[in-house]
Amino acid sequence: MCGILAVINGTYTEEGATLERKPALDTVLIKEMSKRMGHRGPDESDLHLTENGHILSHERLSIIDLHTGKQPIQGTDSAWMVHNGEIYNHKELRKNELKEHTFRTTSDSEVIVHLYEEFGYDFCNKLDGVFAFVVIDGDDFIAGRDPIGVKPLYYGTDAEGRMYFSSEMKVIADQCVEFSTFPPGHFYTPKTGFVRYFTPKWFDYETATEDLDLDKLRESLIAATKKRLMSDVPLGVLLSGGLDSSLTSSIACRLLEGTGQKLHSFSIGLDADAPDLIAARKVADYLGMEHHEIYFTIEEGIEILEKLVWHLETYDVTSIRASTPMYFMSKAITDMGVKVVLSGEGADEIFGGYLYFRNAPSAQEFQKETVDRVQKLSTADCLRADKSTMAHGLEARVPFLDKSFLQTAMEIMPEFKQPKTYDGVEKYILRKAFDTPERPFLPDEVLWRQKEQFSDGVGYNWIDTLIAHCASRVTDAELASAAEKYTINTPTTKEAYFYREIFHKHFPQESAARTVKKWIPKWQENTDPSGRANAAHVKADTTIAVEKAKAAL
């Protein structure tokens, strides 16, 4: 896990045939730009200027091959590469497709430049993992992003036509006249433009026709988790006490049995009585993990909002609410010397786990929404998980977004997933797959616990006080005139307006505003993203962000 920056020093003619070279950029400037994301790679950094004037820069967080895996990495001859992510099948690729190649390192990243040398542009589907990369070979290049967008990537052009790629927007925002998010599941070359390489059958919601096979579902998630234990540094798990993180924790513990490695688990809340901390404690005790509880105050959370928005590069309300505790937890984890954690992102999108899914009008609409949510994860939970953790040089791995597991889970008929089919129990089939009485994965009270969104689970006062704080900082007149100031994604609440002001301060460009997608629940009267805004919640408060905000004035 790292931060990457690449600069293509010129403008390509039609079809990428020739390059109109521009004056060489100052490498001192490039180093300064790259250091804006130095938090992503605190272990080492390096820069390579190619013979043709193109630049690759890298900020490294050392996870695999701690001693010789420094980037940029040169291929067999003239190709060079930078990569952010993890390639879980790198050993298999070395033994098979790349068996004739000589490698300079044992890093998982190096297979990318050799795959380019072996197959040209057509190799992204051979990668099993998460990635954002750029390979430069002479004046030719290819940039690519993983299928779901677990790893961030941005691209843009400057006033003279140079093209930029970077892991974070802050690196290139003031250098480029236009920039945007690099679409997940695509690669880009000067000859082809953007090409979608990831086109699974399940993108079409009507292809979800597979019968339910609980054994296959369970074994697929176990296999996805096993891949993500690949590491040369200590591992941990983010444990909220909810179903998703508890399952990945339980699976990881089983896979590590007999290795002598004890898994560290981490939870966060406002105090010891936070809903997530109570549940996480039960899971950690049950599994025998080395458990750590982290606390933060509401005042501390409010105090770091400006810095948090700079790290997240979004003004989405849900992302900011949930990222605050994750940001504090990530710092505490890295302070303890842990560099890699498993996390449960993606399960709610795949299985319709959010409470609003109970109100889906039909199985078809339920499936359409799960497909849409998974496809937009790069703008929501993946963005939050990556940038909250990487703000402190911590790598989060997400087993639920494994390609094979996604295929297994997304092709199941939606009738098996709908909560109303099973007395209102969300993610029923996932729970049932791991309900193994002969050797339980989890205690029943955790396995069948109601969905609690992370920003709620740390303590209900967090969101309530946050809404009130933002309401006290934004006037009625400011909110009423929001459409005049912010024509793109106009904020409709004082909380949203408050975050937008912070974002605009750091990223005033229109291109920046367009990179953000807002997370809004469907099929319920109150569209606040808190789970408690849904009437089905056991402690529902359907006035969230409505009357509470007004009362704070």
UniProtKB/TrEMBL annotation:
The record's catalysed reaction(s) read:
L-aspartate + L-glutamine + ATP + H2O = L-asparagine + L-glutamate + AMP + diphosphate + H(+)
Top class in the EC scheme: ligase
User: Which positions in this protein are listed as binding L-glutamine?
Assistant: D108
Entry's EC annotation: 6.3.5.4
> SUPFAM superfamilies given for it?
Adenine nucleotide alpha hydrolases-like, N-terminal nucleophile aminohydrolases (Ntn hydrolases)
Q: Which residues are ATP-binding?
A: L238, I268, S343, G344
Q: Does the UniProt entry include the keyword Ligase? A: yes
Q: Name one GO cellular component term.
A: cytosol
User: One biological-process term from Gene Ontology?
Assistant: asparagine biosynthetic process
**Which Pfam family name is an example for this entry?**
Asn_synthase
- According to UniProt, where does the site described as Important for beta-aspartyl-AMP intermediate formation lie? E345
Q: Where is the Glutamine amidotransferase type-2 domain?
A: 2-193
Keywords in alphabetical order = Amino-acid biosynthesis, Asparagine biosynthesis, ATP-binding, Glutamine amidotransferase, Ligase, Nucleotide-binding
Task: Give, as in the UniProt entry, the pathway in which the protein acts.
Answer: Amino-acid biosynthesis; L-asparagine biosynthesis; L-asparagine from L-aspartate (L-Gln route): step 1/1
UniProt lists the family membership as follows: Belongs to the asparagine synthetase family.
The name this protein goes by in its record? asparagine synthase (glutamine-hydrolyzing)
